[in-house]
C-alpha cells in the first residue's frame, strides 16, 4: 500500500517513518524541500509539487494532510479538492475543529472524494510506541485503509468513531480530559511543596511510587517523574502554560450542549491565568479589599 503525506514536520515525519517501518510506502511532500529530501534518504518517496504527488500515487489515491489547523490545512485541502479524482481519499490528521470536518466532508463528497478525519495522540513518543488514532468518516474507507491505521497505532490503538467529524470530536474531548488530569497532578504536587513535608521530598521517586499500584497511576505521571529527574523543583522553566485550542473547543461544546464540565473548564482557565503577570483581575481584587476593609496592598513594582 502507498500513501501520500503532506507535511513532514515533527509529527508528520515521524508518522511517515513509522509507516515505512511497517511496509507502507510513503510519498512525502513538504513546503521546505529539505524535509522531502530527508524522507527520500530514509527510503521514502519524495514529491516536490502536488502534481508530482498525485502522479506517484495509484488510484484510488490516499493523501494524509498533517499540517497545523487553520489556513495551512484549509489551503492544502482546497488544492487537493481541485486536483484529486473521484474515489480518492483525503485524511486530515491535524488538530482541527470537528465542525470544519463536517463542512469539508460535504464539499468533497460533491466531487466524489472521500474524507476521513483522524485525531492523533502520541506526540514525540509516537514513533516508538505508536499513535492512538481516532477516525471519523465513511466506514468503508476506514476499512480499506485499516492497514495504515494499524501500522501507525499500538495494539488496540485505533478506532472508527463515527461519521465525519467524529475523529476530531473524540480527540477534542480527549484533550479536554488531558487538561483536567494535568491540572490535578500540578495542584497535588503544589500542595506537597507548600507543606512541612517538602524538604527532602524526592518528587521523582514519589511519581514512581504512585505509578505502582495506585489508582492515580498514568503515563502523564511517568512524564512528571521524568521531568523531576531532570530538575527536581523545575527551576529551569517558567510556569507559563500554552493551549492548542482544543481545550477551548471542549469548553465551548460543554456550553453549547449544556453539559456540566467544571474541571475541564477550570483547567483551561488556569492556563490562561499562567500567562498573566501582575494580572489586572488580581489588582482589582486587592483594590476592593483595600476599599471596603482597609486591607494593605503591595505597591506596584514589589512582589
Sequence stretches where pLDDT stays below 50 over 5 or more residues: none
Q: What summary fits the major beta sheet?
A: 8 strands, mixed
**Strand order in space, largest sheet:** 3-2-1-4-5-6-7-8
Structural class: alpha/beta
Oligomer: single chain
The chain-level mean pLDDT equals 95
Could you tell me how far the N terminus lies from the C terminus, measured between alpha carbons in angstroms? Answer: 61 Å
Q: What's the Cα radius of gyration?
A: 23 Å
User: What's the number of extended β-strand segments?
Assistant: 8
Beta-strand percentage range: 5-15%
What is the succession of H and E elements?
A: EHEHEHEHEHEHEHHEHHHHHH
Counting H and I runs of at least 4 residues, what is the number of helices? Answer: 14
Q: In one word, what is the shape? A: globular
Helix content: 40-55%
Amino acid at each position: 500500500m502507498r500513501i501520500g503525506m503532506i507535511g513532514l514536520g515533527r509529527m508528520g515525519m515521524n508518522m511517515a517513518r513509522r509507516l515505512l517501518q511497517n511496509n507502507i510506502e510513503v510519498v512525502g511532500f513538504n513546503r521546505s524541500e529539505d524535509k522531502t529530501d530527508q524522507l527520500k534518504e530514509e527510503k521514502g518517496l519524495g514529491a516536490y509539487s502536488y502534481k508530482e504527488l498525485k502522479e506517484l500515487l495509484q488510484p484510488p489515491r490516499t493523501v494524509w494532510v498533517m499540517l497545523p489547523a487553520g489556513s495551512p490545512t484549509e489551503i492544502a485541502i482546497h488544492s487537493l479538492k481541485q486536483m484529486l479524482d473521484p474515489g480518492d481519499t483525503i485524511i486530515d490528521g491535524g488538530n482541527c475543529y470537528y465542525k470544519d470536518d463536517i463542512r469539508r466532508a460535504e464539499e468533497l463528497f460533491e466531487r466524489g472524494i472521500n474524507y476521513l478525519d483522524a485525531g492523533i495522540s502520541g506526540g514525540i513518543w509516537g514513533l516508538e510506541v505508536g499513535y492512538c488514532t481516532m477516525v471519523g468518516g465513511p466506514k468503508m474507507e476506514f476499512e480499506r485503509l485499516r492497514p495504515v491505521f494499524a501500522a501507525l497505532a499500538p495494539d488496540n490503538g485505533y478506532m472508527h468513531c463515527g461519521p465525519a467529524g467524529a475523529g476530531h470530536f473524540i480527540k477534542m474531548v480527549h484533550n479536554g480530559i488531558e487538561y483536567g488530569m494535568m491540572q490535578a497532578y500540578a495542584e497535588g504536587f503544589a500542595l506537597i511543596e507548600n507543606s512541612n513535608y517538602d524538604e527532602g521530598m524526592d518528587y521523582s521517586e514519589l511519581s514512581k511510587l504512585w505509578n505502582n499500584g495506585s489508582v492515580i497511576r498514568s503515563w502523564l505521571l511517568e512524564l512528571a517523574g521524568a521531568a523531576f529527574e531532570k530538575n527536581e523543583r523545575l527551576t529551569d522553566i517558567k510556569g507559563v502554560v500554552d493551549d492548542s485550542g482544543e481545550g477551548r473547543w471542549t469548553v465551548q461544546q460543554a456550553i453549547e450542549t449544556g453539559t456540566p464540565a467544571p474541571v475541564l473548564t477550570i483547567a483551561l482557565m488556569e492556563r490562561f491565568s499562567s500567562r498573566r503577570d501582575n494580572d489586572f483581575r488580581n489588582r482589582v481584587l486587592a483594590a476592593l479589599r483595600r476599599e471596603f476593609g482597609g486591607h494593605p496592598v503591595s505597591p506596584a513594582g514589589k512582589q
